[in-house]
Amino acid sequence: MKDLLKGKIAVVTGGTRGIGYAIVKKYLEAGASVALCGSRQQTAEAALERIKEEFPDASAMAIWPDLTDPQSVARAFAEVKDKFGKIDILANNAGISQSTALYDYTEKEFDDILELNIKAVMVCSQAAARIMKEDGGGVIVNTSSVVSLYGQASGCGYPASKYAVNGLTKSLARELAKDKIRVNAVAPGIIRTDMVAKLPDQMIQPLISRIPAGRMGEPEDIANAFLFLSSDLASYITGAVLSVDGGVII
Ligand code: NAD
Questions:
Q1: Which of 13, 66, 99, 194 is the most exposed place for a label (fewest CB within 10 A)?
Q2: Low-confidence residues of the chain: pLDDT under 50
């Protein structure tokens, strides 16, 4: 594992905590240089500090573009290229979830989830692919969700947005293969992060009891899948949505 990503440059959105933070650590352990993206300067720099404490020799930087703004993302990714020379890997991981009932949804709430969970994936993929293409290729890995396959009983914007992530993944895999860019997604099950901690107990407990593996997933379980799909071990895999969910069928 140690040198699996040696010499590679990775950008991880939503890299400040939870699954994204685990991906940042996994990539660093595998020898990559990493730009971690946060939603604000303060949280991005604080996460970078934590990384530097754990990995004193880490080749890492923090960026905090508005992921839904093409200019802002292009500027931030250009900074990464200036510092590290290229971008080989983009982990499109930033996302929000919702559990609002259909009757209570506001237009803004629905727009917010589409903006971050879908538009940002497209905007970041476009900016990264432009750089990757120039440098001979790369890998994009998106964070989908198991609910993209089964739906969920409230918060319809979330599974709808992740279903769209699967669509982007499969379409961009076909479109970008000629530029030697692979595009895959990981569909996590129920993973122990802040996102799950804030969901109502009556929504989560029944789901956990139906996980055949008998436990909730850990962020590292998902980071391992990102590592595999980002590495040359997966060089013939593109357009895949890999479920990492302990076998759950919701
Ligand atoms: P989390 O809430 O701990 O982390 C979310 C990350 O997204 C944070 O780093 C946060 O800064 C970032 N983010 C949120 N809003 C942002 C914004 N407006 N701009 C930029 N960044 C923003 O949640 P997590 O569980 O680590 O989620 C990571 C990804 O995994 C998400 O895409 C989520 O949908 C997906 N996912 C999580 C689970 C789970 O059970 N935890 C299951 C399936 C999919």
A1: 194
A2: none
